[in-house]
Design brief:
Layout (H helix, E strand, L loop, with lengths): L13 H16 L8 H8 L3 H21 L9 H20 L4 H14 L2 H11 L6 H30 L1 H22 L11 H14 L1 H28 L8 H7 L4 H4 L1 H10 L3 H22 L3 H29 L4 H51 L12
């Protein structure tokens, strides 16, 4: 069943897509500000670094919960208004975190920001729904490029701003910027809703049915969830390793190291185009190989910054190849239920991230950097094996 735009042209212009990409980057990136700042946050509140690292898991767990409960609203409500409202609530969470008087208040702000930052995942299926014929993957790739750049640049920007004005300024500035972008989205986006809105109870109950009846959805969610779990082991522990001897980097330097991963995000737009051309299987294979190959580099990178930067480039490349291909494919499986399909996929994706963060923190306490690298490598191998099972070309897998 084809979706239609109620108010204006059914095809998004390039300007609107770029604003959507910026909004997605701000929303998703906000959940990653804490990664290079864990040492400073722990010192500010007088808590152990392991307690501060819990904020990484909380952000991703809240995001996964929002994906499950809030993103499906895109199949029953007008999407522009829903995305703007969620973005404003996420901005409120960032402000709470930046003004928190205690570590408990900081954690609460982190949860609120993570829960409502799923505005990004309302915009992604909207970009697919309002694409010109044959350009769905390209639209998803464009918007996801913004999201991924936001995630990767968030670490660098957070580190630099923290060194200049303190870590609280990172959250306060992000809150203000998100409000401004949300206002502009309201101005430039057309209204968009499904042709036949579905009741919320029916939306939630149908998600398990979609997971059960669509083999492609199950396979791609598993592969991407394991891939993000592997990467999240790195995200949860990299600041702890880089700030320790022998590298002993400060917040700004750790943030700059994060710039190395931007190269991986630049694959996103190209991967979306490959999906439109039926070459998704190739990108999944490349992603799986890169994900596994990155961990020996990161192991050596614990003491050698050059190897660490190279490993970060390769692991981000692997993750984005897998995620963009799988998400663009999922968006094409059932157009009438794009928001629900995307919600199921992204819930699994970020549930993997939350599990990887939690397990990574435990692995760090058990075996420091070597323990984290071993866990990350095992999860990467699992993701690669799951990717091998994606037998049909992207965009052509039928429900089973």
């Amino acid at each position: 069943m084809r979706e239609k735009n109620v108010a204006a042209s059914p095809v998004l212009g390039r300007s609107a897509l770029l604003w959507m990409a910026l909004a997605c980057g701000l929303c998703a990136g906000g959940n990653y500000f804490n990664q290079p700042l864990l040492h400073s946050i722990a010192r500010h509140f007088g808590v152990d670094q392991g307690v501060a690292a819990l904020s990484v898991t909380l952000a991703q767990s809240a995001y996964a919960l929002g994906l499950l409960l809030l993103v499906p609203l895109g199949d029953m409500l007008e999407r522009r208004g829903l995305a703007v409202a969620l973005m404003l609530l996420a901005a409120a969470g960032q402000a709470m975190a930046g003004c928190a008087p205690s570590v408990g208040g900081f954690m609460l702000g982190t949860v609120v920001a993570g829960l409502f930052s799923v505005a990004a995942q309302v915009l992604v299926p909207m970009a697919a729904a309002l694409a010109a014929p044959g350009h769905s993957g390209r639209n998803v790739g464009t918007v996801m490029t913004g999201l991924l750049l936001g995630i990767l640049l968030a670490r660098s920007v957070a580190g630099l701003v923290s060194a200049w004005a303190g870590w609280q300024a990172v959250y306060q500035g992000a809150a203000l910027l998100m409000v401004l972008v949300a206002w502009w989205l309201w101005r430039v986006l057309p209204t968009s809703r499904t042709a036949q809105p579905v009741a919320y109870a029916q939306v939630l109950s149908s998600m398990l049915e979609l997971l059960h009846t669509h083999r492609a959805l199950r396979q791609r969610t598993l592969a991407s969830g394991l891939a993000f779990a592997s990467c999240s082991v790195l995200f949860a522990t990299m600041a702890l390793q880089l700030s320790a001897s022998p590298l002993a980097l400060d917040d700004a330097q750790i943030g700059l190291v994060g710039l190395a991963g931007v190269a991986g995000a630049l694959v996103a737009s190209r991967a979306g185009r490959w999906v439109d051309r039926g070459l998704g299987r190739t990108t999944c294979t490349v992603g799986a190989i890169a994900l596994v190959a990155a961990w020996p580099m990161l192991w050596w990178g614990g003491e050698h910054l050059g190897w660490f930067a190279l490993g970060l480039v390769v692991i981000d490349l692997g993750l984005q190849c897998l995620n963009i291909t799988n998400q663009a494919t999922v968006a094409q499986l059932l157009p009438a239920a794009r928001s629900r399909m995307n919600a199921v996929y992204m819930t699994g994706y970020f549930a993997g991230a939350a599990a990887g963060s939690a397990l990574g923190t435990l692995a760090w306490h058990w075996g420091q950097w070597q323990g984290a690298c071993l866990l990350g490598a095992v999860l990467a191998l699992g993701a690669a094996l799951a990717a091998v099972r994606l037998r049909a070309p992207a965009g052509q897998m039928a429900a089973a």
